[in-house]
């Protein structure tokens, strides 16, 4: 494959891979009734596209299988981001309930379980959830509650922490804040998640991608201005008592993402 073609192909597959961390139409307790019509429509599109198209590519990207040099940079970037998110959490999570919102192949869920967390790991793709369950069993990491469904479902219960690696990157900032507002009442300590940072390159790719017919493209990654997100969180009455306390960009090869640490005021200093 020619270098330019490789870059284009990887860009598509990165979007597909990121979609695994999205929510599903199905879910424990059903979709949250406060979800906007746009959120539900977009979620359904992502669920259908990813489970039918991208699961094979995602399994390869998150394994140790041989991949191209470009995809290797994406894999390395994702590994760095996973370590970044884990660094925002207590080293000892014994007895704490953690929701892995968009577990994909289960790598992050297993890391959380190794720290002692009681992990609920949910993803839109039944295919990837089945793969994650098998991988965890083969790796000797028991006890993770793997489910396919909607990460916003009230039936999932309450948690000390929610971790969402690339689970909100297909929503605009208003929808993202809406998702955080839905999760927050059921979370006692913090929500650690990622956004696609608003850079000129990603913005151009997003604009060009919207020119293609919907059935010919993967669900797009929506660039987000972290300062705008922080302002909206501060203005949200539903997020009163919550504050963004950390923002860390990870840029490696063709991987671009930014970690956001959102904590309840009562949890600050104790993470």
Q: Strand count, sense and closure of the main sheet?
A: 8 strands, mixed
- Low-confidence parts, pLDDT < 50 over ≥5 residues? 1-34, 205-218
Shape: globular
What kind of assembly state do the chains in view correspond to? single chain
The name of the CATH topology is Rossmann fold
Return the domain count. Answer: 1
The sequence of SSEs as H and E is HHHEHEHEEHEHEHEE
CATH-assigned homologous superfamily:
Vaccinia Virus protein VP39
> Kindly, what is the distance between the CA atoms of the first and last residues, rounded to a whole number of angstroms?
46 Å
Q: Structural class, judged by helices and strands?
A: alpha/beta
Mean pLDDT comes to 79
Total beta-strand segments: 8
Strand fraction equals: 15-25%
CATH class: Alpha Beta
Number of helices: 8
In helices, the fraction of residues equals: 40-55%
Radius of gyration: 17 Å
The CATH architecture would be: 3-Layer(aba) Sandwich
